[in-house]
Amino acid sequence: MPDLAPLYDVVCTAAYPRLAKKLAMAIGGRSVPDTIQLQHWLTLVPATRAAQRLLMKGIKETADGIRSAADSLLLELEEAGITHAILKTIRAVIETRASHLLRITEKA
Predict the structure, then answer these.
(1) DSSP designation for 15
(2) How many CB atoms sit inside 10 A of residue 63's CB?
(3) Residue of 48, 39, 8 lying closest to 25 (CA atoms)
């Protein structure tokens, strides 16, 4: 099963109004997250049903898991005395994008 590359140097630029909203790497020719649909994601895998199912499964698992991981991290930061309004803004971006991913995979 294909794996996503590990993340590094990740900054949620969507949380900062003056920064670019585009992704560093296009997905299926799209670089604005809200415009990326399932057909764009499917360009990343071979055009076989098995590969497509594995990709959709991975997208769903990631979208589902990131919500609780983000909530856990926010709680951990709060318990450590680390609070800032931008953290809740980033959490909202995560929710929006996770919901978008779940919507596009549910249509398939």
Answers:
(1) G
(2) 19
(3) 8
Residue reference for tokens 């856990």: 72
Q: 69 is written with which tokens?
A: 């991981």
Q: Is the dihedral of CA 60, 65, 68, 69 positive or negative?
A: negative
Output the CA–CA distances (angstroms, integers) from residue 72 to 22, 67, 77, 100, in the order listed.
Answer: 27, 9, 9, 21
Amino acid 5: pLDDT: 72
**Would you kindly state where each structural domain of the chain is located, as residue ranges?**
19-106
pLDDT for residue 3: 73
Distances (CA, A) of 11 to 15, 30, 63: 9, 19, 18
Q: Which residue has the tokens 């589902």?
A: 64
> From CA 67, how far away is CA 55, in angstroms rounded?
19
Residue showing tokens 């098995």: 50
Q: Copy the structure tokens of residue 8.
A: 């590094």
What pTM does this model have?
0.85
- Mean pLDDT of each 10-residue bin along the chain, 108 residues long: 67 88 91 95 97 96 94 96 95 96 92
